[in-house]
Design goal:
By secondary structure, the chain is an alpha/beta fold. Helix content is 36%, strand content 13%. It has two domains: 117 residues, Aspartate Aminotransferase, domain 1 (Alpha-Beta Complex), CATH 3.90.1150; 244 residues, 3-Layer(aba) Sandwich (Aspartate Aminotransferase, domain 2), CATH 3.40.640.10. Strands 1-9-8-7-4-2-3 form a seven-stranded mixed β-sheet. Strands 10-11-12 form a three-stranded antiparallel β-sheet. A hairpin with a 4-residue loop joins strand 5 and strand 6. The longest helix has 21 residues. The protein is globular and about 65 Å long. The structure holds 4'-deoxy-4'-aminopyridoxal-5'-phosphate.
């Protein structure tokens, strides 16, 4: 297998082979226009219809109703950490509450505190970010502007279960690392955001689903580019959008629909991949330690370590010899991390599990 297929990186990471092939052809000339995708105007008819298709594909994959606006933004998920409190932590509500369950939610929490008063609803520091709370058991002020959480902690490999009970305050979720990995009920949320570079495409575009009723809260006077209403009213074409990233994202939605067969089928594949990897790691538990406690293990990111940085590095090197890449853990916790995003195949996971078993057998 080629390294593109054996890319276990935390993101940007693996993309489907057929998507890469189409993207390569589109660099040369788009089948629809004969012009390179990199030279296509964002004001062209082609791009306008691409935006319509991207939105419509997302709506049908997830069953998103018209109660939600969908918009494509830049600035990554980090910009959302700031934009969300700027737009929604507004007069008439008490401080938004944040679940601080790992590296990225802590970043979101810290950024919100720079923008407005905010409250930490739960802090995973005392459990070394190995566990997650049950959201509906948290004591949230009914007047809170919203509750923010990160559905999948990319660094620590922790994932909230789907289908949380409905809550009395608006739920805002950073789904950057598990969006489109499985079906879920969008209606339980008021705002969902996900940057593309995990399951959706290359970096450069961030998808936001905004419940329209929330738009009434946005204060007037924000810089236009930081006001969600600007992007929604301009159909995600207020200033020059990342045309290429949105093109690849659209190809990925077609791939999910036509080649995978939808999100239920994607979920099955993802469950099987993570089951195989955890099973292998559990069988090696005298030498390998998984970061997350069992109930909160992520299907997308598996963070683990041999407990010795030299062994971790050695495995990265041995795996690389076999074409396996992207296994280095995040700089904040070290160790190893295998990310099993949508485009990572079951066959790739088999290659990784064999490499792990062999490495432990021979060297540990
Ligand atoms: N949230 C999550 C869950 C992430 O995994 C990341 C980055 N990997 C971010 C936010 C930050 O995203 P960006 O680099 O697009 O700002």
């Amino acid at each position: 297998m080629k390294s593109n297929q054996l890319n276990f990186s935390g993101g940007p990471g693996a993309l489907p082979e057929t998507v890469l092939l189409q993207a390569r052809q589109a660099m040369e000339a788009l089948p629809e226009t004969g012009v390179s995708v990199l030279g296509m105007s964002h004001r062209s008819e082609w791009f306008r219809s691409l935006l319509v298709e991207a939105e419509s594909n997302l709506r049908s994959l997830l069953g998103i109703s018209d109660e939600f606006a969908i918009t494509f933004l830049q600035g990554g998920s980090s910009l959302q950490f700031a934009m969300i409190p700027m737009n929604f932590a507004t007069a008439g509500f008490s401080a938004p509450e944040y679940v601080s369950s790992g590296y990225w939610s802590s970043r979101a929490t810290a950024e919100a505190a720079r923008v407005s008063a905010s409250k930490i609803a739960w802090d995973g520091a005392s459990v070394e970010y190995k566990q997650l709370p049950a959201l509906h058991e948290l004591d949230i002020a009914p007047s809170a502007a919203y509750l923010h959480y990160v559905s999948n902690e990319t660094v620590e490999g922790l994932q909230f279960p789907i289908c949380q009970s409905p809550m009395s305050v608006p739920i805002v979720a950073d789904m950057s690392s598990d969006f489109l990995s499985k079906p879920f009920d969008v209606n339980r949320y008021s705002f969902i955001y996900a940057h593309a570079q995990k399951n959706l495409g290359p970096s450069g575009v961030t998808v936001a689903l905004v419940k329209r009723s929330l738009l009434d809260r946005i204060p007037n006077g924000l810089p236009a580019i930081l006001d969600f209403r600007t992007h929604i009213s301009h159909g995600s074409n207020y200033n020059t959008p990342p045309v290429f990233a949105i093109y690849v994202l659209t190809l990925v939605t077609r791939w999910l629909r036509d080649e995978i067969g939808g999100l239920q089928a994607m979920q099955k594949i993802n469950e099987e991949k993570s089951r195989r990897l955890y099973e292998t790691l559990d069988a090696l538990d005298d030498v390998v330690k998984i970061h997350a406690d069992r109930p909160w293990r992520s299907q997308m990111n598996v963070a683990f370590t041999f407990g010795d940085p030299r062994l971790d590095e050695e495995f990265v090197a041995v795996a690389r010899e076999q074409g396996i890449i992207g296994l280095e853990g995040h700089r904040s916790i070290g160790g190893l991390r295998a990310s099993l995003y949508n485009a990572v195949t079951e066959q790739a996971v088999e290659t990784l599990t064999s490499a792990l078993a062999e490495f432990c057998h021979e060297r540990v």
